[in-house]
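User: I'm writing a short report section on ligand binding and want a predicted complex to refer to. Could you take this sequence and uridine-5'-diphosphate-glucuronic acid and write out the structure as tokens? A short remark afterwards would be nice.
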Amino acid sequence: MNFKKNILCIGAGYVGGPTMAVIAYKCPQFRVTIADINPARIAEWNSDELPLYEPGLDEIIRATRGKNLFFTTDIQRSIRDNDIIFVSVNTPTKMFGAGAGMAADLQYWEKTARQILQYSESSKIVIEKSTLPVKTAQAMENILRNAHSFTFEVLSNPEFLAEGTAIKDMENPDRVLIGSRETASGFKAREELVEIYANWIPREKIITSNIWSSELSKIVSNAFLAQRISSINAISALCEKTDADIIEVARAVGMDSRIGGKYLNSSVGFGGSCFKKDILNLVYLCRHYGLNEVADYWEGVVKINQYQQERFTLNMLTAMFNTLADKKICLFGVSFKANTSDTRESPAIFIAKKLLEEKAEIIITDPQALRNARTDLAGMEGRVSFIDDPYKAAAGCHAIAVMTEWDLYRDLDYQKIYDTMIKPASLFDGRNIIDHRRCHNIGFNVYPIGKPALTHF
Ligand code: NAD
Ligand code: UGA
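Assistant: Sure. The structure tokens for the complex follow:
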């Protein structure tokens, strides 16, 4: 079949996979290829067991794979054969050298740029889909400028999807942002990308800007979202001291239409691969430009998140008579949020490690993320076990700590669970999703976030 456009995405991860699958699904007239250097990951994308859990993804992959969606490790050929190239490789926090622990590690991004230069045989539009420090497009252009007989136009098209709702977010985004150079060729390339999205997204939601605003807007969006969570989590600590209730406070504050009610769920802290890394990247950039007050302001968001996770662990220790040694603690959920198998920067992993330092024994249950958790906690076998069934996981434990807001944990038979636990049995609700009063009546000592504890002593 003759396709109208050939589109490539380099990087078959949490972003590359779902975003390109939706483009293929919405645009059967385009041929979409996703290439990755990791053969195991590509093999999983080509199998019945996809490398990640995302609601709705299976169906879309089944409808498109082998028709107009293809997964490959042949990067050379893919670059040669496609004129529109999205780059969605990882941009983690740099862990070595200058900027270690703060700056973005751009090695995967730069290697990709060099591969594009090396294997291209015609002009291309190269689209930054990865989250990158502002001004990265310039580095990309400087590398790609070395081609002899053809040209590259670099666009910024940051991705705003959240895991667990990736397909919905792609199908019906709040906005699509496309940044370009403000030149004739920049505008032309930008229009070509607008046309792709316009196949299913209303034009008024596709916004354009200069390329630097686009790069910066992505990081700032994440910083604002994370800032709201740190704001409400900071206040949760004050609620616990003053008998105020964080859910009531969040409702009252969020009903002000100028503030709005989203991202005000107090929790054990935000996780995920991006919030922390993107804010640290913002902090690093600000320091680089000598904006130390601005850097300090944003760094506070990360510090409060760390404080919230440490506070949660210390509260557990205090509530359980200041010793966790040889106590069995069951973690309900290990993914960084519900509806994903992703455990990157999950508060549950941080807390599991802290509890192990206290010499507790940990039992982890989760409907989707145990495979990743096993990898994250490799080497700690013996003190950590993984059990699919939450009833079996909690049996014989001194405490349960709810780490992830999976719906499943709202509706369990807590009487049945309580009956199998060691007494006094404690329930630490790091997501405020359980019926606290009911569990207290059953016999649990209940410790929510940002609310008075309900105990029997
Ligand atoms: P990921 O680690 O899941 O996937 C990245 C993939 O890129 C990996 O499979 C890796 O093997 C591949 N890769 C690395 N170098 C390569 C190369 N030279 N050639 C081919 N493949 C290569 O990462 P992710 O979560 O998909 O994130 C990708 C980017 O998108 C990051 O910049 C991230 O900040 C951003 N982002 C992520 C999310 C999210 O929800 N995860 C949302 C918005 C934006
Ligand atoms: C976030 C953003 O929401 C996306 O727009 C962005 O594209 C993405 O980061 C990215 O750049 O990677 P994601 O991390 O997948 O998406 O998930 P969120 O739903 O934003 O949740 C992040 C963390 O905050 C989770 O641990 C979640 O449990 C926590 N959270 C969220 C709270 O603790 N309280 C809230 O009210 C909301």
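A remark for your report: DSSP finds 17 helices and 14 strands in the chain. The radius of gyration is 24 Å.
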